[in-house]
């Protein structure tokens, strides 16, 4: 397994401060010690409308110069709308992101089934709650089966296009329509294309106990091509990096069980770190970009040790 940095972490919407430019993001990934990056397919980093052929070549040049692989591009699509005038632009954007992925020399485009989005407020920061309420208002008169069938048709169309571009679409187990890992596996099988595979993330698993995590990962054997990790980290009294819940009372992701299971199924793709919530300290004060730097560094140390433990156990 390789560790990557998802560019949404430095989009300037979770912390006080400006977004990193894409060249600076690539350099940041190298400085921190990541092997690759995942490019968010929207502004400020990877909207296809902003990147002409020369810009795409320059991104490849900078990444190659820093020894950073472009592991994936991430689409933020929503295929739940019952309104064709809204659905077709979503399909068009994903087609353009497939082209972008190919032009950047990457092989993977992460996709959603449903994505309520975020809302930028007057403070310039991103918030999930407003966008989620608006999404639910649109969705409430549509059945889940109607949404599923509409999304499946869109995925089949896009998978055919992705095949021609040499790109694989990776469906993430991200709600709200996707309920659990089995929904991802079912959609992958129903789409029935070698260019449509799974992106199962540990933090999004329905349960975090060891047995459930292992069974979920085993279900993705042969289909899992990408993954993400998120969370909050700190050092304990002995100086070890440990996870802490982002919100009081929440479970932390069971990354030890996840890594063991991924090792068991022979997964050798990327796990990309994403910092995608407000950067708050213990007094609920918004922090600067250096806070995200520290979290990314702690993640690398924490996850790196898990990978070393898995290697030792397998030896």
For this entry, give a set of tags:
315 residues; alpha/beta; two-stranded antiparallel sheet; 9 helices; 12 strands
Helical stretch count? 9
Note the beta-strand portion. Answer: 15-25%
Characterize the largest beta sheet: strand count, sense, and whether it forms a barrel.
8 strands, parallel, barrel
- Which H/E pattern describes the elements? EHEHEHEEEHHEHEHEEEHEH
Q: N- to C-terminal separation?
A: 16 Å
Q: What is the approximate shape?
A: globular
Q: Please state the average pLDDT score.
A: 95
Low-confidence stretches: none
Helix content: 40-55%
In spatial order, strands of the major sheet run: 1-2-3-4-7-8-9-12
Number of strands: 12
The radius of gyration is 19 Å
Structural class: alpha/beta
Explained architecture:
- This protein has 315 residues and is an alpha/beta fold.
- Helix content is 43%, strand content 16%.
- It is built from nine helices and twelve strands.
- The protein has helices at residues 22-32, 53-66, 84-103, 129-139, 144-165, 181-191, 210-219, 255-264, 289-314, and strands at residues 2-6, 36-40, 69-74, 108-111, 119-120, 126-127, 168-172, 196-199, 224-229, 232-235, 241-244, 270-273.
- The strands form three sheets. An eight-stranded parallel barrel has the order 1-2-3-4-7-8-9-12, surrounded by six helices. Strands 5-6 form a two-stranded antiparallel ribbon.
- The longest helix is centred in the last third of the chain and has 26 residues, at 289-314.
- It is globular and about 55 Å long.
- The mean pLDDT is 95.
């Amino acid at each position: 397994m390789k560790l990557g940095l998802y560019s949404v972490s430095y989009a300037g919407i979770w912390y006080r401060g400006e977004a990193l430019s894409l060249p600076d993001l690539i350099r940041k990934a190298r400085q921190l010690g990541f092997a690759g990056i995942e490019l968010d397919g929207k502004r400020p980093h990877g909207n296809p409308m902003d990147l002409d052929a020369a810009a795409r070549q320059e991104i490849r040049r900078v990444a190659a110069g820093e020894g950073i692989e472009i592991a994936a591009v991430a689409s933020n699509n929503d295929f739940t709308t019952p309104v064709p005038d809204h659905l077709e632009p979503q399909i068009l954007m994903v087609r353009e992101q497939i082209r972008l992925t190919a032009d950047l020399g990457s092989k993977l485009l992460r996709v959603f089934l449903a994505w309520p989005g975020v809302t930028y407020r007057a403070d310039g920061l991103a918030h999930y709650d407003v966008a989620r309420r608006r999404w639910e208002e649109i969705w409430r008169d549509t059945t889940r089966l109607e949404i599923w069938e509409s999304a499946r048709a869109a995925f089949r169309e896009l998978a055919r296009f992705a095949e021609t571009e040499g790109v694989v679409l990776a469906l993430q187990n991200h709600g709200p329509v996707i309920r659990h890992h089995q929904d991802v596996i079912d959609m992958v099988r129903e789409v029935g294309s070698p260019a449509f595979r799974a992106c199962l993330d540990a933090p999004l698993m329905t349960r975090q106990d060891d047995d459930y995590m292992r069974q979920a990962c085993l279900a993705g054997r042969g289909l899992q091509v990408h993954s993400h990790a998120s969370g909050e980290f700190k050092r304990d009294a002995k100086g070890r990096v440990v996870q802490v819940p982002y919100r009081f009372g929440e479970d932390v992701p069971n990354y030890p069980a996840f890594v063991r299971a991924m090792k068991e199924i022979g997964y050798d793709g990327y796990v990309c770190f994403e910092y995608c919530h407000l950067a708050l300290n213990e007094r609920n004060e918004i922090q600067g970009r250096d806070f995200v730097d520290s979290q990314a560094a702690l993640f690398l140390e924490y996850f790196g040790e898990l990978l070393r433990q898995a290697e030792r156990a397998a030896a």
